N-acetylmuramoyl-L-alanine amidase
Amino acid sequence: MSTQLPSDEGTSRSTSINKADEKIKLPLEGLTICIDAGHGKTDRKADLKEPIAPGSDIMKAAIASGTSGVATKITEASLNLAVSKKLKKALSEKGANILMIRETEYCDLTNVERTELWNSSGADLTIRIHANGLNDNTVSGVLMMVPGNKYIKDDEMLQKSTLIGKYILEGVLKHTKAKSRGTVVSNELTGFNWSKIPVVLLEMGFMTNPEEDKLLNTDSYQNKIVMGIVEGIEKYQAEMNTK
């Protein structure tokens, strides 16, 4: 003798199967993010210069070597790369498509060439990963830099950059408990002035401060920085999705 399932039970089972088949949308799905790990080894001439902005007669160094840790002796370029690789993995797990300006210690691109790469990539935004250095070894903390309007006339790009910077800084400070150096609006960075998409530069801390240098070069602290960046981008993207 065959037994039929009650109609409501059959409906419930069918609904469960349909839900299981549905793809769960990740929070950063559809977003393409460029990660620019600052500096890197190069064969280019150290005195090479390029315009600070399109059409400008002001010339700036095309390549900079960055700072290094007073305690660890690790170069800024290596630290930037380590954090950028972790950030790539974390953002990918949230559904984002990632463009890496460099994934090795070597990078032969000038500041303008880096920017032109992300401009032509179809990326939605760029995060530049750096660490700070100063003659005063007592100074510490996280600094966010965003572009100003001296050369950039795209108000939407500037507003989005400011918003991304705000949320990332909040996230990094929340997870690291580091001192805040605030947000600096800069018209002096070539990698800002040539950008056609929203862009921010995170100074993760001061490698010239012995204690912060040691912290910056630990897995646990790098993971906190990454968590803060990801949280900030998620918050930014959620806000964009409501508009």
